[in-house]
Specification:
The protein is built from two helices and no strands. With about 80 residues, it is an all-alpha fold. The model has no long low-confidence stretch (mean pLDDT about 85).
Length: about 80
């Protein structure tokens, strides 16, 4: 059976990796700061999550996404 929807890729691009790393950093730091009871830094870490999504979107629009002209896929 063939899939009629075009394969969007799996996010193996500099834009996707950068976005995910920034968001993971936000989650990780937020968890650590929550455990050590530093609420101001928890909220500062929460801000990193949408920042990561925005950075990923900007990089994708700049051509570093899966279908961007600056992206060069690597063999697995």
């Amino acid at each position: 059976m063939t899939n009629s929807i075009a394969d969007p890729g799996h996010g193996h691009s500099p834009a996707a990796w950068t976005a995910v790393i920034i968001m993971l950093l936000g989650f990780t730091l937020g968890t650590v700061f929550f455990c050590v009871e530093m609420p101001a830094l928890v909220w500062a870490s929460v801000v990193l999550i949408p920042v990561g999504a925005i950075v990923g979107w900007v990089l994708a629009k700049a051509g570093y996404g899966v279908k961007g002209p600056k992206y060069q896929p690597k063999g697995h």
